[in-house]
Amino acid sequence: MWNELLIALALMLVIEGVLPFLSPDGFRRTLVSMIQLDDRGLRLAGLVSMLIGLTLLYWVH
């Protein structure tokens, strides 16, 4: 179980690093637009992200 959790964490870090590596300016603009979101918008973005992740996990598994 711990092995799979560490693999998932490593993959998450790799995926999170792709955008700043490929397009630092685009990543910076994305962060600025996220900072300007209110709490409700940020929570909604987090919820959508979690639902997409759960759907993908269900589909793959």
Summarize the structure in words.
By secondary structure, the chain is an all-alpha fold. It has one domain (2-60). It is 90% helix and 0% strand. It has 3 helices and no strands. It has helices spanning 2-22, 24-35, 39-60. α1 (2-22) packs across α2 (24-35). The longest helix is centred in the C-terminal third of the chain and has 22 residues, at 39-60. It is extended and about 40 Å long. The two termini are 15 Å apart. The model has no long low-confidence stretch (mean pLDDT 93). It holds the Pfam family DUF2065. The chain crosses the membrane at residues 44-60.
Major sheet description: none
Low-confidence stretches: none
Q: Please provide the count of β strands.
A: 0
Shape: extended
What is the residue-averaged pLDDT? Answer: 93
Q: Structural class of the secondary elements?
A: mainly alpha
Strand portion: under 5%
> What is the rounded Rg?
14 Å
State the end-to-end CA separation.
Answer: 15 Å
Helix and strand run? HHH
Helix content: over 70%
Number of helices: 3
Number of domains: 1
Protein name: DUF2065 domain-containing protein
InterPro entries: DUF2065
Transmembrane segments: 44-60
Keywords: Membrane, Transmembrane, Transmembrane helix
